Amino acid sequence: MKLVGIYGASGHGREVMAMLPKVADTDYVFIDDNEQAETVNNHRCLSWEEFVNAPASSRQAVLAIGDGKVRERLSRKCEDADIGFLPAHAESAVILDDVKLGEGAVLCPFSMVTCNVTIGRQFHANYYAQVSHDCVIGDFVTLAPGARCNGNVVIEDHAYIGSDAVLRQGRPGEPLVIGKGATVGMGAVVTRNVPAGITVVGNPARPLEKY
């Protein structure tokens, strides 16, 4: 029996579990490092130690955690234990032409990646998120529900694009750039490059003032 562990039994983890097509001869379980019930939504919930020691012909994990920094830590933990990553693509997710997806990508229902796109490791596209043509996306990037990344955009590692945010289209050779670790707030409209580590909000998006 193969074993697939959805890492995280909170709301997003339950959504990812529900969207996964279930394959015969495979046991789908939750992995949770905190106190947990024995079952969640009719699936066993195991600690990390229980998951790695359970009898199985093979093990794979899906990192169903919204925080990219936590996903990076859990990714290293899985790699150290020789546990691979299952691509988690909803049946209604759309992937068009010449798309390169890094390991562990999660594409939630009604998300879309169009053409000539390169995406790094442990990418998350939540419900109705969109990545258009000629984009380059780094590792551990998160697109919240309804986020729209138009064409010719570069999103660097660990950036977070909030719900219903819009990234305007860049130009060939002159992409719009969202810097490493930047956060684009919910509903923001980004019309210019965002420096690394900055949070921007509003329409047009501007750096968030600290109070």
UniProtKB/TrEMBL annotation:
GO molecular function, one term: transferase activity
Superkingdom of the source species: Bacteria
SUPFAM superfamilies recorded: Trimeric LpxA-like enzymes
Active site: 133 (proton acceptor)
InterPro entries per the UniProt record, alphabetical: AcTrfase_PglD-like (IPR020019), PglD_N (IPR041561), Trans_hexapeptide_repeat (IPR050179), Trimer_LpxA-like_sf (IPR011004)
Site positions for Increases basicity of active site His: 134
Protein name: Transferase hexapeptide (Six repeat-containing protein)
Organism: Qipengyuania nanhaisediminis
Alphabetical list of NCBIfam families matching this protein: NeuD_NnaD (TIGR03570)
Lineage, top ranks: Bacteria, Pseudomonadati, Pseudomonadota, Alphaproteobacteria, Sphingomonadales
Keywords per UniProt: Transferase
Ranges where the PglD N-terminal domain occurs: 5-77
Recorded family membership: Belongs to the transferase hexapeptide repeat family.
UniProt: substrate binding residues: 10-12, 32-33, 66
